Amino acid sequence: MAILYALVARGSVALAEFSAAATNASQIARQILEKIPGAHDSNASYSQDRYIFHVRRTDGLTVLCMADDTAGRRIPFAFLEDIHQRFVRTYGRAVLSAQAYAMNDEFSRVLSQQMEYYSNDPNADRINRLKGEMSEVRNVMIENIDKVLDRGDRLELLVDKTANMQGNTFRFRKQARRFRSNVWWRNVKLTVALVIVLLVIVYVVLAFVCHGLALPSCIK
């Protein structure tokens, strides 16, 4: 799975989060929230090992995700923009005064669904390619997380390797289902074609035996 963790926060107050793997990304995300400079709108990416923490801050609301470095930037930032819009549309001004994890029970399910969609559905990337890359994402530099966190404070990122295996398994099963479906439809079409050919052959034989297309000598 390309996106393994997501968090929505107001300042350093986490409002909802979801992790698709056994990882300590939540602790590292909180360190990033406390250390990222300024309160103005911004986009940033911070790398650690093979994973990148992408951060989008808009109107005081911060959306963060951790993705595999193979995911690039377009998909993670499209995911962050989507989550920000859904969160604001769902909760409105309530986000300005909500307590920590006030929206977690409900919105963690949305995070899970959208993480699955942006990680595994090829349509997610096609749609964003049609829209074109977001201009602000083009200028996002990926910095090492050491530039944000003091080395003494930095936690080693721990990710259960089975998460990627689960993502690969999901894609394999999806491809297998698509292959079986294609084979089934091909067999159906072949069967229908054979039936039609047999009917035509039978009709031609009957027409010859019955002396005419209308089968005059056979129908009395």
Could you characterize what this model shows?
The chain has 220 residues and is α+β, with helices and mostly antiparallel strands. Helix content is 49%, strand content 19%. The chain contains six helices and six strands; from the N terminus they run ββαβββααααβα. Strands 2-1-5-4-3-6 form a six-stranded mixed sheet, sandwiched between helices. Helix 2 packs antiparallel against helix 3 and helix 3 packs across helix 4. The longest helix is centred in the C-terminal third of the chain and has 48 residues. The radius of gyration is 28 Å and the shape is rod-shaped. About 2% of the residues have low confidence.
In terms of topology, how is this protein built?
Elements: E1 3-10, E2 13-19, H1 25-35, E3 42-48, E4 51-58, E5 61-68, H2 74-91, H3 104-120, H4 122-131, H5 135-138, E6 142-144, H6 162-209
Parallel strand pairs: 3-6
Antiparallel strand pairs: 1-2, 1-5, 3-4, 4-5
Helix pairs in contact: 2-3, 3-4
Summarize the structure.
It is built from six helices and six strands; from the N terminus they run ββαβββααααβα. By secondary structure, it is of the alpha+beta class. A six-stranded mixed β-sheet has the order 2-1-5-4-3-6, sandwiched between helices.
